[in-house]
């Protein structure tokens, strides 16, 4: 197995498709998706375009759907939800499909949707994603940070490092044999530096600061927890993720 880390969707190669691609948007899209599926959401369907989301979700009855729209960290007017994982309670979500469009996370998932296996990961479900990768042993694994509008995001690359670190720790191969690019070592170094204070890292991150300005302190705390959800968001058809049990 060869691991590759890409800091943003824009940095992924355009002429290749990996066997397994993992999208990471710690703050907050993939944390929200993992939470929705962990508490019994039927599926998560991602859109980059808000109008398309509205049109497709119209075919679902209001009792069977939730529409989540986020731009710039804030809820889009007219949507049921923004992008806070804390709003995704079992009472609200159980049995419903989440139709979601966010600034970067949903675009990252769309960018990698042609991979044979597509997963969504955050710190909250890191262990479950790693377990799946170790079981299936895909030949190539891309871990793709969502970044912010094309720029590097500290928290996504730190989570990519957490995933890569755990995979390398549990396989007894030399890191040089498993790392497909330099970013793997950079991401692991970042995670190693901050693993005991991820909330502190989020306070340095530009999107962490943006969310703090929007009073999302509790979201940051929630997203900083590692391995708390046993959930594997896996693509069932392009753009649709379910929890593989
Ligand atoms: C995104 O997709 O850029 C984020 O998830 C934004 C957010 O924190 O809502």
Compute the number of strand runs: 10
Total helical segments: 11
Radius of gyration: 17 Å
On the 0 to 100 scale, the average pLDDT is 97
Notes on the protein architecture:
Helix content is 39%, strand content 20%. It is built from eleven helices and ten strands. A six-stranded mixed sheet has the order 5-4-6-3-10-9. A hairpin with a 2-residue loop joins strand 9 and strand 10 (240-243). Helix 5 (126-136) packs across helix 6 and helix 6 packs across helix 8 (182-194). The longest helix is centred in the middle third of the chain and has 17 residues, at 154-170. It is globular, with a radius of gyration of 17 Å. The site of D-malate (MLT) has 13 residues, from loops.
Features:
245 residues; 6-stranded mixed β-sheet; single chain; 11 helices; alpha/beta; binds D-malate; 4-stranded parallel β-sheet
What secondary-structure arrangement, pairings included, does this model have?
Blueprint: E1 2-6, E2 20-24, H1 29-38, E3 43-46, H2 50-57, E4 65-71, E5 74-75, H3 90-93, E6 97-101, H4 105-111, E7 117-121, H5 126-136, E8 140-145, H6 154-170, H7 175-178, H8 182-194, H9 198-204, H10 206-213, H11 217-223, E9 233-237, E10 240-243
Parallel strand pairs: 1-8, 2-7, 2-8, 3-6, 4-6
Antiparallel strand pairs: 3-10, 4-5, 9-10
Helix pairs in contact: 5-6, 6-8
D-malate is lined by residues 25, 27-29, 70, 73, 83, 102-105, 146, 211.
């Amino acid at each position: 197995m060869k691991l590759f880390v890409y800091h943003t969707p824009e940095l992924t190669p355009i002429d290749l498709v990996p066997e397994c691609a993992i999208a990471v948007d710690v703050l907050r899209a993939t944390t929200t998706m993992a939470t929705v599926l962990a508490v019994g959401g039927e599926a998560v369907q991602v859109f980059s375009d808000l109008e398309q989301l509205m049109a497709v979700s119209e075919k679902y009855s209001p009792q069977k759907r939730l529409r989540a729209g986020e731009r710039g960290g804030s809820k889009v007017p007219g949507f049921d939800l923004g992008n806070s994982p804390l709003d995704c309670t079992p009472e609200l979500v159980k049995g419903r499909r989440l139709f979601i469009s966010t600034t970067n996370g949903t675009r990252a998932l769309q960018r990698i949707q042609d991979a044979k296996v597509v997963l969504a990961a955050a710190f909250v479900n890191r262990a479950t994603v790693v377990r799946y990768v170790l079981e299936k042993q895909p030949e190539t694994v891309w871990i793709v940070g969502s970044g912010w509008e094309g720029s590097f995001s500290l928290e996504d690359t730190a989570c990519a490092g957490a995933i890569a670190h755990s995979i390398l720790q549990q396989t007894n191969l030399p890191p040089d044999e498993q790392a497909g690019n330099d970013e793997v070592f950079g991401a692991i170094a970042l995670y190693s530096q901050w693993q005991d204070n991820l909330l502190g890292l989020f306070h340095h991150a530009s999107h962490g600061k943006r969310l703090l300005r929007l009073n999302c302190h509790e979201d940051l705390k929630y997203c900083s927890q590692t391995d708390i959800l046993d959930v594997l968001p896996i693509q069932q058809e392009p753009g649709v993720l379910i929890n593989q049990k």
